[in-house]
Amino acid sequence: MCLLSGVLGLIGCAPKKMPEGDLIRVEYTRSGTMAGYEFEGRVEQDSAGSFVIRAMKESYGALYEKKVSPEVLQHFRQIIEEEKMYKYKESYRPKLEVLDGWGWSFSAKFSDGSSIYSHGSNASPSGNGLGKIWGYMESLIEEGGVKIKEAPFEQDETDLNESDN
Fold first, then answer.
1. pTM for the whole structure
2. Is 106 within 8 Å of 119 (Cβ atoms)?
3. pLDDT grade for 113, boundaries at 50, 70 and 90
4. Which of 10, 59, 64, 78 gives a 20 to 30 Å CA spacing to 147?
């Protein structure tokens, strides 16, 4: 039995476990058929020790930032654990070739040095972990995020005023 367990561990068949450390960063992106991301979000501790979310809450829109409490990362950790996101495969692809579609990536880093990384193109894992991560990030930004970067195609008021003259 011990020999079989050792062999399975060497070939990567050992069951994946939830990392024991505190969650220190979580990221999620989703892209569509056009260049760039439909959604991009990251929550982590900044150099000053504050916890911050940075996210683009609209398709190809402006980048927003907001300070959040440490409990926010605990909530993300709870989602990861409840949805068993630590068991995700590294890559998801459909069985048939798809030339147009969507993609996503998810990563989480923990204080014990462990991390989770998964991505996909036109396929995703079962469950609703990705949707919960995305939805929670969007709700955090909607509750008072500050715009820190304009959308790539957005005109500012000076551009509009100059065109009137």
1. 0.78
2. yes
3. very high
4. 78
Q: Is 143 helix (H, G, I), strand (E, B) or coil?
A: coil
Q: Which residues of 51-76 are buried (b: 16+ CB within 10 A; e: fewer)?
A: bebbbbbeebbebbebebeeebbebb
Report pLDDT digits (tens) over 15-60.
Answer: 689 999 999 999 999 987 666 678 899 999 888 888 999 998 776 6
What percent of the residues of the chain are helix, what percent strand, and what percent coil, each to the nearest 5? 30, 30, 40
In terms of DSSP H, where are the helices of the chain? 2-10, 70-82, 129-142, 157-164
